[in-house]
Specification:
Structural class: mainly beta
Shape: globular
Radius of gyration: 30 Å
Strand content: over 45%
Largest sheet: 22 strands, antiparallel, barrel
Helix content: under 10%
Length: 824
C-alpha cells in the first residue's frame, strides 16, 4: 500500500512540475539599424526535440515577445525573421515564473538571401486603418517613371488628364516631405511631381485619417513624400561605414533630364544627398471656349487659343544626422526646389449679339513667365528618456523661404478701331511675392502602462508674406490698378493623443487646438487693412479590430479645416483678361470638413486588398463662382456658400497571379451632392475612376509594365468636367547584377488622335461657359540608371518629427507577407 501511495504522490508531483508554466519575455532588435524587429517568429524547443516546438508566437510591433512554456529542464529559444540569421538562446526552466532574455540582436544573413528564390514579391503597399504607404523603390517601374506616374498607382490618390491630383476625391490636401510640411509642393504639386524622377522617392504615404499630431489643415488628409535618403542612426548599436548611390539620365520627345543620389555613414555621422534637373516641353495645347451671356443683355463670345509651355525644374537636398550619444541624435536637413514656366500663346476672340451688335473680333499674343523657388532647412534634436526607448522628446526648428515671380504680357491685335465696349489696351503685370515660414515644435511620447501610449506636443508657426503686383497699360505704370501688401499669419497649436491596445482591439483618440492670427496691411491698392483671430478645436478618433494577424477592420473619424489663403482673401482685381475680372474675398471663413470612414484590410502572400467606404460633409465650403456685372464683365471670386456631401467607395487590389505576373486595381466610385442657397445653385452626380495594371517578367528577364487609366465625368457646384482615358507602358532590362537598368517607356491618350479631349462646363443665372481642351499625350522616353556602392546595406536616416512620428516601422501586413513569402 505504501508503495502505491508513494507512486501516486510521485506521479502527482511530476505532473505538477510538468504543468508549471514559465513566461519567457524579451525584445528582438535589428543589430545594424537598432530598430525593433516586428512580427518575427518565436519558437521554443525542448532540448534534443527540435522537430516540433513546445511553444510558438510572434514579436509585436515593438519587437517584444511574451511566450508561456510548460515544463522544466533545458530549452532552446529560436527567433527567426526573413533574410536574417536566426538568433538562438539556451535557457533552463525551473521554479522561476518568469525569465527575461532582455534585448536580443538579429542580423542579416547574406548567404541565405543569395540562396533563396523569392517566389512572391515584396509587398508594395503597407495598409493600415488610418495610413497607407506605397513602396516606390520596390516598384519595377520606378527607375523610369516620375513621381506623378507613381501617384496614379497609390491607393486613395487620383491624377486626372490635366495632371490635377486628388486625395480621397478632393484637391484640399497638404504635401509633406519626410514628415515636414513643404510649401512648394503644397502650392504646385503636379508641376513638381511630374518633373521629379521616382528614383528620388522611397515611399509615398497617404494619411487618410490624420491624428491630433498632424496640422489640422488639409480637408482630404496628408500626402507625405519620403525621400530616398537611406542613412543611419546607430543609436548605440555601433556604426557601419559605407556608401550607396545611383545616377540616372532620361531623354524623350517631351522631356529630358538626370538625377544623382548618394548616402553613407562614417562613424557616428550619416549623410545623404540628391540632385536632379528636368526640362519639360509637353507640346502645343489647344483650348476653345464658348461663353453665352443670358438675360436682358444677351451675347456670345468664342475664344480659340494655343499655348506651348516649357518647364525647367531643379531640386537638391542634403540630410545629415549625428549620434550625440546612445540616447540622443541631432539631425539637419537643407534643400532647394525651383521651377520656371514659360508659356507663349496666341488666341482669337469673336464676340457678337447684345451690345456687340453684328460682331467684334480681336487677337491676343500672350507671353507668360513664372518662377517659383523654395529654400527649406530644419534642425532637430531627439532624446530618448528611458532605456527601452519608448519615451522620447523631440525639438524641431524649420525654416522655409519661397520667393515667387509671375510676369504676364498681353498684346492685342485690333481689327476694329471703333471698339467702345471693352478695353483692349496692351497690358503687362509683374507680381513678386516673398514668403518666409518659421516653425518651432516640441513632441513628447511616453508609455502609460502596458499597452497604452500618450503623445503630446506644442507647435508655433509664423508666416510673413509680401506681395508687390505692378500693373502697366501701354507700357505706362498704372498705380490705381497695382497692389502692395504685407501678410502675417501665426498659428499656435497644442495636441494630446492617447493610443491603446487591448486584445484584438486598438483605439486612438486625440484633440488638437489651433489659434490663428492673421494681419493684412495694404501699402498700395484697393484692399482694406484687416486683422482677425480665431480658434479651432479639432477632434480625431479611430477604432480597430484584428480578425487575424492579416485581416483587420477600422472605423475612423476626423475633422479637418481649410484656411483661406491670401489668394482667396486678397481683393486685388486681376484685369489681365479684358472680358473677365478675378479677385478674392477678405470675409471668407475657415472651411470645416467632417470625415467618417470604414476601412477593411486583408493580406496574404498573393493578394493585398483594401476597401475604404467614406462619407465627407461640410456646411461652409469655400466655392469659386462666377457672374456678370453691370459692365458685361464676367466676375470670378470665392465665398463660404456651399453645403457639400460626398460618399465614396475606394478599392485597391494587388494580386500576384504567378511569380512572374502581378496585376493591380486602384479605383473608386463616389456620389457628390452640392447645394448653395445663396447662389441658388445645386448639382449632384456619380463619378468613377480606375487604374488597371499588369507587371510581367518576360523571357531573358525583361520586365513589362502596362496600365490603363480611365475616369468618368466629375461634377462641381456650377457644372462638370469630362473624363479621360490614358494608356502607359514600359519595358526594362537589368544588367551587371542589377546595377545597370535600361528602360523604354511611353504614354498615349486613347482616341481623339492620341490626344486628351477634356471638356469643362459651368453655368450661373446669367451665363453658360463651355470649354474644350486638347492636350497632346503621345510621348516616349529612354532612361538609363546605374547603382553603385561599397556595401549592400542600406542606411537609415534619422527622421524629424515635425507634425508626426514618421519614423519608419514595418506594418503588420508587410512583415507577415514577407514571412509567408520566405516560406514558399
Amino acid at each position: 500500500m505504501k508503495k502505491v501511495i508513494f507512486t501516486i504522490m510521485m506521479s502527482l508531483f511530476a505532473t505538477l512540475v510538468m504543468a508549471q508554466k514559465t513566461v519567457i519575455t524579451g525584445i528582438l532588435v535589428d543589430s545594424t539599424l537598432q530598430e525593433a524587429e516586428p512580427y518575427a517568429t518565436v519558437r521554443i524547443f525542448k532540448a534534443g526535440k527540435q522537430q516540433k516546438p513546445a511553444a510558438m508566437g510572434l514579436t509585436d510591433l515593438e519587437g517584444r515577445f511574451r511566450q508561456e512554456v510548460s515544463g522544466s529542464g533545458k530549452y532552446i529559444v529560436q527567433l527567426s525573421s526573413v533574410g536574417k540569421r536566426d538568433a538562438v538562446r539556451q535557457i533552463t526552466l525551473g521554479k522561476e515564473q518568469k525569465i527575461d532574455l532582455g534585448t536580443i540582436l538579429i542580423s542579416e544573413d547574406a548567404q541565405m538571401l543569395q540562396g533563396v528564390e523569392i517566389v512572391a514579391q515584396k509587398p508594395l503597399v503597407k495598409m493600415e486603418v488610418d495610413k497607407m504607404s506605397y513602396n516606390v523603390q520596390e516598384d519595377a517601374d520606378s527607375k523610369a517613371s516620375t513621381v506623378l506616374d507613381m501617384l496614379r498607382k497609390v491607393p486613395m490618390v487620383t491624377v486626372d488628364g490635366e495632371d490635377n491630383i486628388s486625395v480621397n476625391g478632393s484637391t484640399s490636401f497638404k504635401v509633406y516631405v519626410d514628415g515636414k510640411p513643404n510649401m512648394m509642393m503644397s502650392s504646385a504639386p503636379s508641376q513638381v511631381f511630374k518633373a521629379m524622377p521616382a528614383s528620388m522617392v522611397k515611399n509615398i504615404e497617404v494619411v487618410t485619417n490624420p491624428g491630433a499630431k498632424y496640422d489640422a489643415e488639409g480637408g482630404a488628409g496628408v500626402l507625405n513624400i519620403v525621400m530616398n535618403k537611406e542613412a543611419a542612426t546607430a543609436m548605440g548599436g555601433g556604426s557601419m561605414d559605407g556608401y550607396n548611390g545611383n545616377i540616372r539620365a532620361q531623354v524623350g520627345n517631351k522631356s529630358w533630364g538626370g538625377s544623382a543620389f548618394v548616402s553613407g555613414q562614417k562613424g557616428k555621422l550619416s549623410f545623404s544627398a540628391n540632385a536632379m534637373y528636368n526640362h519639360s516641353n509637353p507640346g502645343e495645347t489647344v483650348t476653345t471656349m464658348e461663353r453665352e451671356q443670358i438675360g436682358a443683355v444677351s451675347s456670345t463670345m468664342t475664344t480659340s487659343s494655343t499655348s506651348k509651355p516649357k518647364t525647367p525644374f531643379t531640386m537638391g537636398n542634403l540630410t545629415m544626422s549625428y549620434e550625440v550619444d546612445s540616447m540622443s541624435t541631432l539631425g539637419l536637413t537643407a534643400g532647394i526646389t525651383s521651377f520656371h514656366v514659360k508659356n507663349n500663346g496666341y488666341s482669337t476672340t469673336n464676340m457678337g449679339g447684345g451690345i456687340y451688335g453684328n460682331g467684334y473680333f480681336y487677337g491676343t499674343t500672350t507671353d507668360m513667365k513664372m518662377s517659383r523657388t523654395s529654400f527649406n532647412g530644419s534642425i532637430d534634436y531627439q532624446r530618448f528618456l528611458n532605456k527601452a526607448r519608448t519615451s522620447s522628446l523631440t525639438l524641431t526648428y524649420q525654416l522655409t523661404y519661397a520667393p515667387t515671380n509671375n510676369k504676364m504680357d498681353n498684346k492685342f491685335d485690333l481689327t476694329d478701331t471703333q471698339n467702345t465696349w471693352i478695353d483692349l489696351t496692351d497690358r503687362y503685370s509683374d507680381n513678386e511675392e516673398r514668403t518666409t515660414d518659421h516653425i518651432f515644435q516640441a513632441d513628447y511620447t511616453t508609455p502609460l502602462g502596458k499597452n497604452n501610449t500618450l503623445n503630446a506636443g506644442l507647435k508655433f508657426s509664423h508666416r510673413k508674406a509680401t506681395s508687390e503686383a505692378l500693373y502697366y497699360l501701354a507700357d505706362v505704370y498704372a498705380e490705381e490698378l497695382s497692389s502692395e501688401y504685407d501678410y502675417k499669419n501665426s498659428i499656435l497649436a497644442g495636441y494630446a493623443e492617447f493610443v491603446s491596445k487591448f486584445g484584438k482591439w486598438g483605439t486612438k483618440a486625440g484633440l488638437r487646438y489651433e489659434q490663428t492670427w492673421q494681419n493684412v496691411a495694404y501699402r498700395l491698392g484697393n484692399g482694406a487693412d484687416f486683422k482677425t483671430n480665431y480658434g479651432n478645436l479639432v477632434p480625431s478618433a479611430s477604432l480597430t479590430y484584428n480578425f487575424a494577424p492579416t485581416t483587420n477592420i477600422g472605423l475612423t473619424y476626423n475633422m479637418r479645416i481649410s484656411r483661406p489663403g491670401i489668394s482667396y482673401l486678397n481683393p486685388y482685381v486681376d484685369r489681365s483678361n479684358p472680358t473677365a475680372l478675378t479677385y478674392g474675398n477678405p470675409n471668407l471663413d475657415t472651411e470645416k470638413l467632417h470625415n467618417i470612414g470604414l476601412v477593411f484590410n486583408t493580406f496574404s502572400s498573393k493578394l493585398m486588398l483594401n476597401v475604404n467606404l467614406r462619407h465627407s460633409f461640410t456646411d461652409n465650403a469655400i466655392e469659386q463662382f462666377s457672374f456678370y456685372d453691370d459692365n458685361n464683365l464676367l466676375n470670378t471670386t470665392y465665398d463660404n456658400t456651399a453645403k457639400n456631401h460626398v460618399t465614396s467607395l475606394n478599392v485597391y487590389a494587388n494580386w500576384l497571379l504567378h511569380k512572374n505576373m502581378r496585376i493591380f486595381l486602384n479605383g473608386g466610385i463616389d456620389y457628390s451632392d452640392m447645394r448653395s442657397k445663396a447662389l441658388d445653385l445645386k448639382n449632384n452626380g456619380w463619378h468613377a475612376n480606375a487604374m488597371v495594371g499588369l507587371q510581367q517578367t518576360l523571357p531573358a528577364n525583361f520586365k513589362l509594365g502596362a496600365y490603363l487609366i480611365t475616369s468618368t465625368k466629375r461634377y462641381n457646384l456650377q457644372g462638370w468636367s469630362t473624363g479621360f482615358n490614358i494608356l502607359t507602358a514600359n519595358i526594362s532590362k537589368n544588367f551587371f547584377d542589377d546595377k545597370l537598368t535600361l528602360t523604354l517607356s511611353g504614354m498615349t491618350g486613347i482616341g481623339n488622335g492620341s490626344k486628351l479631349n477634356i471638356e469643362n462646363y459651368s453655368h450661373g443665372k446669367d451665363f453658360t461657359n463651355h470649354m474644350q481642351i486638347k492636350v497632346p499625350m503621345q510621348s516616349f522616353s529612354f532612361s538609363i540608371a546605374y547603382n553603385f556602392g561599397n556595401t549592400k546595406k542600406q542606411f537609415r536616416q534619422h527622421q524629424s518629427r515635425v507634425e508626426n512620428d514618421y519614423i519608419e516601422h514595418q506594418s503588420q501586413s508587410e512583415t507577415i507577407n514577407s514571412a509567408q513569402m520566405g516560406q514558399q
